[in-house]
Amino acid sequence: MNLKIALLPGDGIGPEVLNQAVKCLHAVEETFNHHFTFKEALVGATAIDRTGNPLPNQTLNLCQEADAVLFGAIGDPKYDNDPSAKVRPEQGLLKLRKELGLFANIRPVQVFPTLLDNSPLKKDIIAGTDFVIYRELTGGIYFGEKKLNEEGTIASDLCEYSEKEISRIAHLAFKAAKNRSGKLTLVDKANVLESSRLWRRVVSKIAESYPEVTLDFLFVDNAAMQIILNPSQFDIILTENMFGDIISDEGSVIGGSIGLLASASVGEQNALFEPIHGSYPQAKGKDIANPIASILSAAMLLEHFGLFEEAMSVREAVDKSLKKGIVTPDLAKKSQYGTNQVGDFIADNIVDEDDDLNMNDENIGLGKSTII
Ligand SMILES: NC(=O)c1ccc[n+]([C@@H]2O[C@H](COP(=O)([O-])OP(=O)(O)OC[C@H]3O[C@@H](n4cnc5c(N)ncnc54)[C@H](O)[C@@H]3O)[C@@H](O)[C@H]2O)c1
Ligand SMILES: CC(C)[C@H](C(=O)O)[C@@H](O)C(=O)O
Ligand SMILES: [Mg+2]
């Protein structure tokens, strides 16, 4: 298959982890005889420094013309620590999501059997965790009108949702639930927010078209607790933009590190793949960031184009690195392996299973194809 992939390394550890994902995609190209073309562009603080714009037109055009975007991370303390900054790296990512129409952000939360001891949570609670968060990505409080009065003493952010915005992601989430265990939980704050009550009405109506799916509702405060008390109760979680952002970072605690959680953002035309973590500026240039979230995001990219065997080969190589303890320090304090070594190991272990008769595929961590 030929694929044009836009690479947006961004800031902090973004370039380091993205490089490892690209190594793995090169290995997939060679092993399975595909042809991927990579073109890189600026985004985030790096783009502001070079052009004054966190999402230069050239970058947006490249992404619009590409088959897929592979994104590193954006963000820089010089903006995080300056609440008055007029231009911010995050605006680049938000505008990109909006312009590409990436309304559904899909964030699988699973536990690698090898990492059951890595979580601060009890093994018997987290074993078997396997749920997917469908996070609405181009609406809600992130994109509502923002106001600050002249004195700078009163500020507001409007949380607005339309029926259309809710129903298009709801359909994707119901279809995913239908293909999995048939359970969908809508996470909201319908006891307080009018926008959440609209979500409940729209989602309840759509549920009538999916009789095989059981729908239940959970207030987000309770959901935040249930996710770590009893994660196995969840299959598909559907939620709005900000709640999805927050509960997915929380969900990463189950698996042992946020450096493991990948995501796909999809719309009608475009698709973007990125780790859920940020630019982790404290780790920039230290070769300690976990590249697995970025590598698994590349695996989701492959699945998006129907390259399931290829995606599986990446997941199996990741699993092998975990089993052999070839991991970054977030997963083993005394680890002597860096971002690059872990990336090299995983890329070197991408094999076509049909060609490898000795492959042992017992107990594969994230073996199950995810969602798209
Ligand atoms: N999609 C994105 O690009 C994205 C996502 C989240 C945050 N951000 C931005 O990133 C910057 C830093 O934000 P933050 O510190 O709140 O979140 P962060 O995700 O960058 O880091 C939070 C913590 O998670 C851990 N971590 C993150 N990535 C890791 C990795 N690959 N390997 C091992 N450990 C990892 C580290 O302990 C780190 O201190 C901010 O500017 C923020 O706006 C960007
Ligand atoms: C950087 C920020 C705008 C972004 C978000 O809130 O969507 C990040 O936290 C994420 O999870 O991708
Ligand atoms: Mg986030």
Automatic annotation (TrEMBL):
* This protein's UniProt keywords: Amino-acid biosynthesis, Branched-chain amino acid biosynthesis, Cytoplasm, Leucine biosynthesis, Magnesium, Manganese, Metal-binding, NAD, Oxidoreductase
| Localization per Swiss-Prot or TrEMBL | Cytoplasm
Record-level Gene Ontology MF annotations: 3-isopropylmalate dehydrogenase activity; magnesium ion binding; NAD binding
InterPro entries with a match to the protein in the record: IsoCit/isopropylmalate_DH_CS, IsoPropMal-DH-like_dom, Isopropylmalate_DH
SMART domains linked:
Iso_dh (SM01329)
Q: Which Gene3D superfamilies match?
A: Isopropylmalate Dehydrogenase
Tell me which residues bind Mg(2+): D221, D245, D249
Q: Which domain of life is it from?
A: Bacteria
Q: Where is this site: Important for catalysis?
A: Y142, K189
Pfam families the record matches = Iso_dh
The cofactor binding remark recorded in the entry reads: Binds 1 Mg(2+) or Mn(2+) ion per subunit.
Residue positions annotated to bind substrate are R97, R107, R135, D221
A cellular component term, taken from the record's GO annotations: cytosol
Catalytic EC class: oxidoreductase
Oxidoreductase among keywords: yes
The metabolic or biological pathway listed in the UniProt record of this protein is: Amino-acid biosynthesis; L-leucine biosynthesis; L-leucine from 3-methyl-2-oxobutanoate: step 3/4
Q: Which residues form the Isopropylmalate dehydrogenase-like domain?
A: 4-346
Cofactors, names only: Mn(2+); Mg(2+)
Name the catalysed reactions.
(2R,3S)-3-isopropylmalate + NAD(+) = 4-methyl-2-oxopentanoate + CO2 + NADH
EC number(s) per UniProt?
Answer: 1.1.1.85
Instruction: Provide a GO biological process annotation.
Output: L-leucine biosynthetic process
**Role according to the record:** Catalyzes the oxidation of 3-carboxy-2-hydroxy-4-methylpentanoate (3-isopropylmalate) to 3-carboxy-4-methyl-2-oxopentanoate. The product decarboxylates to 4-methyl-2 oxopentanoate.
Q: Which family does it belong to?
A: Belongs to the isocitrate and isopropylmalate dehydrogenases family. LeuB type 1 subfamily.
Quaternary structure, from the entry: Homodimer.
Task: Return the protein name.
Answer: 3-isopropylmalate dehydrogenase
Q: Which species does this protein come from?
A: Flagellimonas allohymeniacidonis
